[in-house]
Amino acid sequence: MADLVYELSFKGAASETLIGAFEGFHVTRRHGITVVRCKLPDQAALQGLLARIHGLGLELLEVGLIAETSGNDGWATGRDDAADADHA
After folding, report:
1. What does each of the 88 residues of the chain score in pLDDT, given as a tens digit?
2. Which of 25, 34, 38, 83 could be a cystine partner for 14, CB 3.0 to 4.6 Å?
3. Where are the domains of the chain?
4. Is the dihedral of CA 37, 8, 12, 48 positive or negative?
5. CATH 3.30.70.260 fits 3-69, yes or no
């Protein structure tokens, strides 16, 4: 099964302590906004992360699906290129 790569942003520049709540994820702070980029296996994991953000009292600004990775960590495109070649 493919992992889904999400970016979630919330208001405020997270402190080092707060960043610790997102251990294992890539966290950046810029212009008063904190962005968390993470690879999640499914929607249940995303819901868990959203619950964590809510539980910490953070103001969620945006959630975006960045990419889907295949089992070998390559990027999945959602297209069957072999099938496209047959129709060329």
Report:
1. 688 999 999 999 999 999 999 999 999 999 999 999 999 999 999 999 999 999 999 999 999 999 887 655 554 444 344 443 444 4
2. 34
3. 3-69
4. negative
5. yes
